[in-house]
Amino acid sequence: MAGHPDLEPLVHTSVNEAVYRRLRDHLMRGDYAAGEVLGIQELADAFGTSAMPVREALRRLAAQQALEPMKSRSMRVPVVSRARLEDIRRTRVLIEGTATAWAVEHIDGDTLATLRGLAEQIGQSLANPTSVRDGLEHNQLFHFTIYRAAQSPSMMAMIESLWLQSGPYLRATRELMHSDERPTAEFHAAIVQAIEQRDAGKARVAMERDICWAFDKLTAHRAMLAG
Q1: What is the CB neighbour count within 10 angstroms for residue 77?
Q2: Nearest CA-CA partner of 182 in 219, 151, 155, 214
Q3: Would you say domain 82-220 falls under CATH 1.20.120.530?
Q4: pTM attached to this predicted model
Q5: Domain ranges within the chain, ordered by starting residue
């Protein structure tokens, strides 16, 4: 089983919630590979907690379809398949494109400045293979800043579940982000420009293009898929 990235002991806030959020973020960024088994006691030791909050966090993540139960009572990151890839791709395009269009009228000047800065950082990370992790974190923050601005808790719950399910695919595209196949256009800058122009339709299309790039590249690289 692979080692767990950057798992640090947790301080008490709500330990259950802290464990859940930490695991959620790692899954969203693709820190765990498709098919990887997450052991309860190993995670508990890494976080410096008992097994109970880890078990509860894994149960919540399984309910969001980010993990699947194993006979050993551990959880596994679902295996990548072509059908699953296409289903998540279509759903993300529909829901996240809509959320982006809804968000345009609610994004103020300060938020726009934040998005512009994040877009620049993401663009810089594409040219620097050593900054993959930073780029993924900035990418997550960029997207969720927009989606929160849509002011739809129901939509946010669906988007979070979709990102959790997308984690293994994001992991598989990391090497593409720093190859000759990386995006020729900076989609994030195009999204920011559309929001700045208050053009909801243009923002939606730019977001859809950003989402589709990684999924389409993975579909083309059939060796990465389980079938």
Answers
A1: 24
A2: 214
A3: yes
A4: 0.81
A5: 13-77, 82-220
In 3D space, the residue among 169, 148, 185 whose CA is nearest the CA of residue 226 turns out to be 169
In CATH, the number for domain 13-77 is 1.10.10.10
Task: Give how far the C-alpha of residue 82 lies from the chain's centroid of Cα atoms, to the nearest Å.
Answer: 19
| Alpha helices in the chain, H assignment, sequence order | 15-28, 40-47, 51-63, 82-103, 109-126, 132-149, 153-173, 187-196, 200-220
Distance CA(140)–CA(65), nearest Å, equals 19
Q: How confident is the model at residue 111 (pLDDT cuts 50, 70, 90)?
A: very high
Token output for 67: 């993990």
Considering only CA atoms, which of 86, 70, 26, 51 is closest in space to residue 78?
70
* pLDDT bracket for residue 213 (50, 70, 90): confident
